[in-house]
Amino acid sequence: MIMRLTILIASISLAACASHTNVDIDELAEARAAIAAAKDAGAEQCAPALQAKAVAYLYWTAHEINEHGYHPEETAELKAKTLSLANEARKQSGVNCAPPAPVVVEIIKLDGINFEHNSADLTAASTATLDKAVATLNRRSEINVEVAAHTDSSGSDAYNQALSDRRAASVMDYLAGHGISTNRLSSKGYGESQPIVGNDTAEGRAKNRRVELRVMK
């Protein structure tokens, strides 16, 4: 409570003298840059209290330097507090004003996409399905999709995750290489985390090894 009151009083008093307090000095370059970065991130709208405190501390620091001479320890503490507040304001802006996460509104199954064993190399037989996917995306030019690749449970979780990441990227590269804008595409591997049937039979494992286009909104 005392600290808040101190900052409030300092903010009010410094606001009154801000017009003649020089903050454009080399010693405050890092602090000014941090506050500017927070502002660019939207802190004045998304984390206004933190941004206001950072600015108040900037003027407080400048006031101490300009009016009372150089006090290394006190100046260093004030600069550190300014930087901390500005960085926290920038971080909070990303949280408070972050755009909503994309939502999957449709799944387009890509039956017939296969890869070489333990590889992200597409088989020749996959071309027909991939070309149909290209045609679908050209026809539905308004949609953005995530290429989602899945594995069965054979092998370790880490291996399957990495393999699915590479396979998703491989399919996305094919689509991009056949004219689909990369602005409409993303890729993500899900490893063995989202099976659609059990992995206890060869047939079940084959069904779980799949690639989908997830329409995102």
TrEMBL record:
Localization terms from the record: Cell outer membrane
Domain OmpA-like: from-to ranges: 103-217
PROSITE patterns assigned to the protein according to its UniProt record, in alphabetical order: OMPA_2, PROKAR_LIPOPROTEIN
Keyword terms, alphabetized: Cell outer membrane, Membrane, Signal
An example Gene Ontology CC term for this record: cell outer membrane
InterPro entries: Bact_OuterMem_StrucFunc, OMP_bac, OmpA-like, OmpA-like_sf
Region (Disordered): 184-205
Protein name, UniProt field: OmpA family protein
Gene3D superfamilies: OmpA-like domain (3.30.1330.60)
Residues annotated as signal peptide: 1-18
